[in-house]
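Hi R.,

Here's the input for the zinc ion complex you asked about:
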Amino acid sequence: MKKIDYRNQALKILPWVCTKCGRDFSGKNLRELTVHHKDHNSANNPPDGSNWELLCIYCHDNEHSRHMDAQWLPTRDTDREKTPLSTHTPFADLLKGLGGSDRKGEGGTED
Ligand SMILES: [Zn+2]
Ligand SMILES: [Zn+2]
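And here is the predicted structure with zinc ion in place:
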C-alpha cells in the first residue's frame, strides 16, 4: 500500500492557517487542519504545493459537499449507510386498524 504523506509535506511548506476562514492552527488542534487538493485529484501532489490548500475540517467539508467526493474522510459516508432505515414497518397501519375495530367491539356502545 503506497501512501504519499502529502499532509506532512504540505504542513512543511504552507502556513498553518485555514485558507477559507483564516483560523490558525498549532499543536493539538492541528489535526483539524487538512489538505485539500485544488483540482480534487489526491494523486496530484506537486512538491511545490501548488495543488494544495490547507483547510480546516469544516471548510474542507463545505468545499467537498459541493462536489460530493469526500474521500478525504472515508468513515463518514460508510457510517451513514450503516444506520438502519428499518423503522418503517408495513404492519404499523394494519395493527392500528385492528386496534380501532377491537375497541369498537368491546365497548358495545355503538350509537
Ligand atoms: Zn476554515
Ligand atoms: Zn479536499
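One thing worth noting: The two ends are 77 Å apart (CA to CA).

Cheers,
M.
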